[in-house]
Amino acid sequence: MNHSEFIKQINQYYPLSEETIKDLLNICTEEYYRKNDLLLESGSMARYYYFLRSGLIGYYTVDDDGNNIYKIFFEENSFVASTAAIIKNEPSDFNIIALEDCSVIQYPAKAYRELLEKHHDLALFHLCYLEKNWVVKKEPLEVSLKYETAKKRYLQLLETPSLYNRLKQNHIASYLGITPTQLSRIKKEINTD
To answer: Is the pTM above the cut of 0.85?
Structure first.
């Protein structure tokens, strides 16, 4: 199994020693998920972290009416987990689903967290990753959801064609917090502008 891209992505946040890499790779397995397979089901304990080698993953919850509400999408070379559930050691409030056939590197949360205590460099990677992706990158999205229109958020999503072109319209509508009908109206309005 080739882990070079996995290690490359980690080293972009903080470089790992050879010893740390060896210990980390010892807990990793390569797994495959078919389109629509759940990597994690809401209400279950989050037992793994994932690195997405190929495919597309969605992270969603279900509202009181049974509608899927997508929080985020992950493309190749992304780290994926129900982080809050792992930290709190509680069942996840979110489902993690393969939106395309996926290949992932999977590593157990318990063993990984033990390695965080053992290897200072891995802990610094983890800290840098969380700061960049769950604080710095997430903050504008949270502000956007409170103050920007669905049309403006849709236009922002269009700026990432590699992701946009892979999503179904119902995924996009759910992510924007609108109905598919409202999304159709926004698209029509944009096309007539």
So the answer is: yes
Distance (Å) of CA 44 to CA 66, 96, 142, 153:
18, 11, 26, 31
pLDDT digits (tens, 9 = 90+) for 25-57: 999 999 999 999 999 999 999 999 999 999 999
Across the chain, what does the average pLDDT equal? Answer: 91
Phi first, then psi, for residue 62 (nearest 5°) are -120, 130
Amino acid at site 108 = P
Report d(CA 188, CA 154) in Å as an integer: 12
* Residue position matching structure tokens 């509400």: 69
Residue 154 pLDDT more than 90?
Answer: no
How many residues does the structure list for the chain?
193
- Work out whether the CA dihedral 64, 65, 67, 71 comes out positive or negative: negative
Distance of CA 79 to the CA centre of its chain: 6
Assess contact for 116 and 183: CB atoms under 8 A. no
